[in-house]
Here is the input.
Amino acid sequence: MDSLFAREAGEVENAFLAAPFEEDGWNAALRLFARRTGSSRTQLLGLGDDATLFNFMPDIDPAYQREFLEIEGWRPEVNWRVAASGRPLEILTETHYDIVRQHSGTDDYEEHIRRWDGVHGCQTVLVEGEGLLVGLAALRSEREGRSEERDQKLFAAGASYALAAVRMQQAMARRGAQMTVGAFDAIGVAAFLIDRHGAVAALSAAAEAIVGEGGALRLRRGRLGTTRRDADGVLQAALGRALDGEAMQQHWIGSPHEGEGGVLCEIFRLPRREWDFGFDPRLLVVARRAADIPMMRIAPLRAALGLTEAEAAIALRLANGEAREAIAAHRGTSAQTLGTQIKSILRKSDVAREAELTALVNRLLR
Here is the structure.
């Protein structure tokens, strides 16, 4: 028995430690872990900010995930497994569940776990802190019954290997962030990578220079902000919208036309990867110092976008951070006429919004 246990524990160790590096490695490790612990399936669950960040179970029907979210299965008053959460690497079993179920859990959750063969099993916390909890569980059906001592011992051994793998995945995400900003360093671009909390996960050397020169942008307690209170509210709201799913935004922080050094901030939402565990950066912010694009650049802008001379002049002024009212006054036209011209510019430039237009012109001409 001891030699068989050691062999099976070794298989689980190898599978988890390979998981971050192999395609479908996490699914393979969780499948093997389920077999070795005599479980229907094993689960890797990430909770944060009062919501589910990820809920991985190999080969589970997508209906499971939808149902889990519908019943708000991340809430301890709904899910007695969450309510039973113990210390990191403390193994909780059916004995603990029996106690917690007396004062936590809902009928919806009980029906949910019976439908998806998760009535029995054991669990542990792998990572806790910084607004994130990562838990590992082995789920057993009523037919499979309660876990036995050997199953629990193998689960405990596997949990330590799973923790090492999660930490490796986290380190790779951080290393990936550094490599990403390193690529921006090579072309001298000021880039900030923002994590799911809105904090700066990494920044390029050019970005460090911008926040260190006492201009429009600053870092405070690890978060990107501005030196102007009114502009800071706008930037924080924009970052919040991007974290909620808005694809691309552009904001001037301190317009050069207000007599100070301005910065153009472009905010991009990064694609999610299946196995990022909530560690990977969520947003990319590219900051460009304001430097008026000279009017002599109208000709190449006309050629690039197929604009008239008047349209190119308007597009250039928008890209330089001028407000519509100032552009209309300078040209001696009404706001309505200017609005019509801008609509034509957007159509010819194949963009939907003014922010996308100004971002395009800045990329073409700066």
